[in-house]
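Dig into this one:

. . .
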Amino acid sequence: LMLTGQRRSEIAGLRWDEVDWDRQLMIVPADRVKNRAGVHEVPLTQPAIAILHEMQTVQDALGIATGLVFPSE
């Protein structure tokens, strides 16, 4: 939250296909943006990218394939 300035629901629902590694963006679809005005592209800081890479490494190691960046039971 603090590294992106996004709402908790936008981060909690983040999917791997919404992370644009090449452009270093998080792309939040309109249905998860509060104002629903359209897709919201959020620049990712280096600390945020580091966290995403760590989550990807952990999920790969554990065989987690939900599609969510921050899966929860």
About this structure: The mean pLDDT is 89. The chain has two helices and three strands.
